[in-house]
Amino acid sequence: MVNRTSQIFSPWVIEDIHAKSDLGRYRIRGFSSFQKVTHFDDLTFLSTGLTRFPLEGYKEKCNTRTIIGGLNAKNPLVLDTPIYITGMSYGALSANAKTALGKAASMVGTASCTGDGGMLPSERKSSDKLIYQVLPSRYG
């Protein structure tokens, strides 16, 4: 094995690449991502499209309550906001992160999604509204 420094990859990433080549597959882990995480400061919300045109923005209330399945469902999904936490599997996130996202979604009145890694018991317990993601059987 040749050990050289890289201007692109950190030593930890290089070590991970070597481990993957030795194993013949990626390491199964549930604790991190190499991508830059988006922050809420990177988002811009234009809520005026959700209700009638506000005449005085600082005085007008904007109702963001969203009902999914309101016409035909026996138990429609009612969210306080039209934004929910998308599916991220246990593998992309740790158990603690998935539990924290479930608690956060419950606190703001929205839902979270399990992702393709199944549902953790702590995730189910901490989430008031949990969307279970079902995939085709190509993953085993």
Compact description:
The chain has about 140 residues and is an alpha+beta fold. It has three helices and four strands, in the order αββαβαβ.
Which helices and strands appear, and what pairs or packs with what?
Layout lengths: L10 H13 L42 E3 L8 E3 L15 H14 L3 E2 L7 H6 L3 E2 L9
GO biological process, one term: glutamate biosynthetic process
GO molecular function: glutamate synthase activity
Protein name: Glutamate synthase domain-containing protein
Structural notes for this entry:
The protein is of the alpha+beta class and 140 residues long. It has a domain at 61-139. 24% of the residues lie in helices and 7% in strands. The protein has 3 helices and 4 strands; from the N terminus they run αββαβαβ. The longest helix is centred in the last third of the chain and has 14 residues, at 95-108. The relative contact order is 0.11. GO terms for molecular function: glutamate synthase activity. Belongs to the glutamate synthase family. Residues 67-140 form the Glutamate synthase domain. It holds the Pfam family Glu_synthase.
Task: List the main descriptive attributes of the protein structure presented here.
140 residues; alpha+beta; 4 strands; 3 helices; two-stranded antiparallel sheet; single chain; two-stranded parallel ribbon
